[in-house]
Amino acid sequence: MDILQKTSEKLTYLIGTPLSIVIHTLLFAGVFVLVGFGITIDDVLLILTTAVSLEAIYLAIFIQMSVNRTTHHIAVVREDIEDIQEDVEDIQEDVDSLEVSSQVEDKDDEGVVQALTDIEKRLGDLQKDIALLKKKGLF
Fold first, then answer.
1. pLDDT of residue 87
2. Is 107 helix (H, G, I), strand (E, B) or coil?
3. Distance from C-alpha of 84 to C-alpha of 98, rounded to nearest angstrom
4. Taking 70 as the threshold, does the pLDDT of residue 139 lie above it?
5. Helix spans in 16-139 (H)
6. How many CB atoms lie within 10 A of CB 113?
7. Cα separation of 74 and 58, whole Å?
8. Which residues form the domain of 40?
9. Count of Cβ atoms closer than 10 Å to residue 52 Cβ
10. What percent of the chain has pLDDT over 90?
11. How many CB atoms lie within 10 A of CB 82?
């Protein structure tokens, strides 16, 4: 991740905090102090309007960047969920196969052991996938 992207993520986070509300309120109210230094109210309002417009443009860019990141994370999660669904379907097939095989040949212990081993492996894979999703904060 490059410096510009890291900086934008930090700024996006900081702008969304209560401290940011306080700072912005103080800055916007503080602009009117310029009247005390002999600057006309029209010039103060022009400065304030320009600053607010520029800030709105940057906030819109930060919001779009956040939307883009979220969209990317959703796509990754969707792929992970599809993989998990495939694993679940495979496990279901194994369970169905195990039920059929146990009905047909009760004495075929080796087939049952193999089917149970396969199920156990797939369940372990699912647990790893779920743990990874939880670690990413996406599940």
1. 82
2. coil
3. 21
4. no
5. 18-30, 41-104, 109-136
6. 10
7. 24
8. 3-136
9. 13
10. 24
11. 10
Question: For 40, phi and psi rounded to 5 degrees?
Answer: -70, 155
Strand, helix or coil for residue 15? helix
Give the Cα separation of 31 and 49 in Å (integer): 11
Element housing 14 (H / E): helix 3-15
pLDDT digits (tens, 9 = 90+) for 31-80: 999 999 999 999 999 999 999 999 999 888 888 888 888 888 888 888 88
Tokens 């906030």 belong to residue = 59
Name residue, tokens 């417009």: 53
- Tokens standing for residue 55: 């800030």
Task: Evaluate whether 77 touches 138 at the Cβ level (below 8 Å).
Answer: yes
Domain count, the chain: 1
Question: How many residues are listed for the chain in this entry?
Answer: 139
Q: C-alpha 63: how far from its chain's center?
A: 14
> Does residue 106 register a pLDDT over 80?
no
